[in-house]
From TrEMBL:
<dbReference type="Pfam" id="PF04341">
    <property type="entry name" value="DUF485"/>
</dbReference>
<dbReference type="InterPro" id="IPR007436">
    <property type="entry name" value="DUF485"/>
</dbReference>
<protein>
    <submittedName>
        <fullName>DUF485 domain-containing protein</fullName>
    </submittedName>
</protein>
<feature type="transmembrane region" description="Helical">
    <location>
        <begin position="33"/>
        <end position="55"/>
    </location>
</feature>
<feature type="transmembrane region" description="Helical">
    <location>
        <begin position="67"/>
        <end position="88"/>
    </location>
</feature>
<keyword id="KW-0812">Transmembrane</keyword>
<keyword id="KW-0472">Membrane</keyword>
<keyword id="KW-1133">Transmembrane helix</keyword>
Length: 112
């Protein structure tokens, strides 16, 4: 029913892959992108929160019409979130996915 194939994976296959240089390189590539980007985004987000709470005059400065600095910063929070997601997808496709595919193929080969 459903056409699902069940493959029994030996835990030692995963342990071997986890200790491999390829896997460690995959982790390094992921972490070297994800951690700095996470810190940058959190700083950007907290800057918005802190400015909203403690720099009300600045955040209330009208730029044009009824559009003030706070509204622009708020919209930029959404824009930066989408840009980070887009940048990560490009990074993953170029740097992570090829290596992950190699590791998966290796794991599937060892499990059979």
């Amino acid at each position: 029913m459903g056409g699902h194939v069940t493959v029994q994976h030996d835990a030692s296959v995963y342990e071997q892959i986890q200790s491999s240089d390829q896997f460690q390189e995959l982790r390094r590539r992921y972490r070297s992108w994800a951690f700095p980007m996470t810190v940058a985004f959190l700083v950007w987000y907290l800057l918005y929160v802190v400015l909203s709470g403690f720099a009300r005059g600045f955040m209330g400065t009208k730029l044009f019409g009824n559009i003030n600095v706070a509204l622009v910063f708020g919209v930029l929070q959404f824009v930066s979130t989408f840009l980070i997601a887009w940048a990560y997808s490009r990074h993953a496709a170029a740097k992570l996915d090829p290596l992950a595919d190699e590791l998966r193929n290796e794991a599937e080969g060892k499990a059979q």
